[in-house]
Amino acid sequence: MTDTATATTGPTPDALDGVDLETWGMGTNNATGISNNKLGMWLFLGSDCLLFGALISTYLLLRHRGEGLGPEDVFDIPFTSVSSFVLLMSSLSMVFAVSAIARGDMQRLRLWLLVTAMLGGVFIAGQVYEFTAFYNEGLGYTTNLFSSAFYSLTGFHGVHVTVGIIMLMSLFVMSLNGRLSRERAETVEIVGLYWHFVDIVWVLIFTIVYLIP
Amino acid sequence: MTVTHNGPDTEYEAATDEARHEHHPSDAQYWKVGAILGLITLAEVSTYFIADPPYDHPLAALLIGGLIVMMIAKFVTIGAYFMHLKYDNKVLQWVFVSGLVLAIGVYVVVLSAFTFWFDGYESSLGALPL
Q: For a tag site, which of A134, A155, B49, B78 has the least CB within 10 Å?
């Protein structure tokens, strides 16, 4: 064991005394001084930019291809605006959750985690309603190139949001079981990074897909 | 290599906590940022009521340009404040921004290959099946 190997970015729980931190992945990248977990999440988010870049550019190329219904025929901007606002507010509540655990306020953490998950759920419900309405108007997944590109893009985003909700609820359960503490605030922060990324992607999708047809 | 933690270091903990709190906005500041983001969203949605679709309006360039500027403003604000990029290690900024720049660069090239930026780009896509 070397002196540099014991460097961490913050306090470590007493329960981890004598435990191999590297094995637990809680070590620090000594070249950068950053937590490995946080760096890993940022790397993932950087790569996820490429996924959504592909989906958005494919949509841009195909949105006016094919016959039948197009974006101007089906989009309900006021409805989608409300959905967008809901997702934006969920980002705000997530930030409060991270702030709460940094203070060690577990009650507020649980409250804000639930609020974030609920707002995410409302967003997904809005997406499901929207997709159902489009389908009933005759825009199925294979109707034309626009529909395939649109459903692929927004569907992938919806899956990301759903995975985020599952992570939030997992954190909620962990906090109830006493497995989250102020010393493990980074765990909540990392889930928060994922959630904010999902919101950022929707900011792009809402503007490019809905507002600039 | 085994890395072990040999018990809490009170001084280190206190210093780290202080440093951490110094670099995190307060809840009041988060509310302000949230309000700003809400107002920008309101401004974006208002363009729908001004012109739908925006490119049919005499001020199309201004409307679409404004939408893009607002989109970028929201993107940067969420990244800087909510994702703490403004307060975190610069390496994290580079990691995210490099992925973003790579994605934008690659797909600008893809769109350019299909002459997306010019009228009649659909012909470059060829006879794609419906």
A: B49
